Amino acid sequence: MHIKFVNPRMNSRPVDTQVKFRLLPPQSFIRLAAVTPAHHTLELADENLEDCDHDDRPDLVAITLFVATARRGYDIADAYRARGVPVVVGGIHATCMPEEAKRHADMVVVGEGDELWPRLLADMERSESFTCAGSI
Question: Of residues 81 and 68, which shows the higher confidence score?
Answer without folding.
Answer: 81
